[in-house]
């Protein structure tokens, strides 16, 4: 069966009139009748009752009509996807954002890119740090912003954007907020909110252990916004990468004797198969003033 036969049948099913359907399609009425007869032979049953003004679908025709509609919609969608892929005006880029990254350093970059390329649609996807490689390699994402990667892959292109430190996060109205830096001894006296997804978590815990210190953990969560809200509300402290604050009322301070930092990357797949739209984003990222 050919796609044009499906279009013929769907047009006839909409009009239930051979004369009107053939005019819409742009073929003769005998040619349309012959095409429908051929379909009926292929399906082994009558699809259309031909009763003059009472032309109507048979039960078989009604069931076939549902499936034909799905095929037609799939064809239209495939054509639309191809059109969008080949026409920059309708292009879209799927961008992953690792769940431990805050929006501060990326907002101006993404909006500047949109201003320069208003017709390119950006779709942001929250992803776990560990899934970034796989999502890029599978094609689910065109690129991803993520922190220091623990493994390398020759298929993955890694563009180093900037470095950010681990800092102490305290309420802005806390007396410690007046100090230039904070001592671990001051922090452990306060309730601590533990960010489970933090890349610094194990390294920071090891440093604490080496100093014989331990936080009084009030709560653990992988929800960055909840942890920050508890801190901003004055219920305790946490540690945050320096560009990760999303809750108002939080002040970040260096911690004496603690020097932990991570590199932030823009990763994508090597090769020339990338779309024109993505190549523009890649080039824009390389030239952007991240620091």
Number of distinct helices:
10
CATH architecture of the largest domain: 3-Layer(aba) Sandwich
Q: Give me the CATH superfamily of the largest domain.
A: Periplasmic binding protein-like II
Q: Output the radius of gyration.
A: 30 Å
Beginning-to-end CA distance, first to last residue: 60 Å
Structural summary, described in words:
The chain has 291 residues and is an alpha/beta fold. The chain folds into 3 domains: 3-74, Orthogonal Bundle (Arc Repressor Mutant, subunit A), CATH 1.10.10; 88-162 and 263-287, D-Maltodextrin-Binding Protein, domain 2 (3-Layer(aba) Sandwich), CATH 3.40.190.10; 164-261, 3-Layer(aba) Sandwich (D-Maltodextrin-Binding Protein, domain 2), CATH 3.40.190.10. It has helices spanning 3-15, 18-25, 29-43, 59-86, 104-116, 132-138, 184-187, 201-210, 224-232, 276-287, and strands at 48-49, 56-57, 92-98, 121-127, 143-147, 156-171, 191-195, 216-221, 238-241, 250-253, 261-269. Helix 1 crosses helix 4. The longest helix has 28 residues, at 59-86. The chain is elongated, with a radius of gyration of 30 Å.
């Amino acid at each position: 069966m050919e796609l044009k036969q499906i279009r013929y049948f769907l047009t006839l099913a909409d009009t239930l009139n051979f004369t009107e359907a053939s005019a819409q399609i742009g073929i003769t009425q005998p040619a349309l009748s012959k095409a429908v007869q051929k379909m009926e032979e292929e399906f082994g049953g009558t699809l259309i009752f031909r009763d003059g003004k009472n032309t109507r679908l048979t039960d078989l025709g009604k069931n076939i009509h549902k499936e034909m509609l799905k095929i037609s919609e799939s064809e239209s969608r495939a054509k639309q996807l191809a059109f969008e892929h080949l026409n920059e005006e309708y292009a879209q880029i799927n961008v992953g954002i690792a769940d431990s990254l805050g929006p501060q350093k990326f907002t101006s970059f993404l909006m500047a890119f949109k201003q320069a390329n208003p017709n390119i649609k950006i779709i942001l996807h929250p992803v776990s740090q560990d899934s970034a490689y796989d999502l890029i390699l599978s094609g689910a994402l065109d690129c991803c912003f993520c922190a220091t990667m623990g493994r390398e892959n020759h298929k993955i292109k890694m563009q180093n954007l900037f470095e950010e430190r681990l800092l102490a996060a305290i309420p802005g109205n806390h007396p410690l907020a007046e100090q230039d830096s904070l001592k671990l001894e001051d922090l452990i006296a306060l309730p601590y909110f533990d960010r489970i997804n933090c890349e610094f978590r194990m390294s920071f815990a090891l440093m604490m252990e080496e100093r014989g210190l331990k936080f009084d953990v009030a709560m653990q969560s992988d929800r960055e916004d909840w942890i920050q809200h508890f801190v901003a509300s004055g219920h305790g402290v946490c540690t945050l990468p320096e560009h990760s604050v999303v809750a108002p009322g939080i002040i970040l301070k260096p911690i004496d004797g603690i020097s932990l930092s991570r590199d932030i990357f823009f990763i994508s797949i090597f090769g020339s198969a990338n779309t024109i739209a993505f190549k523009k984003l890649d080039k824009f990222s390389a030239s952007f003033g991240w620091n």
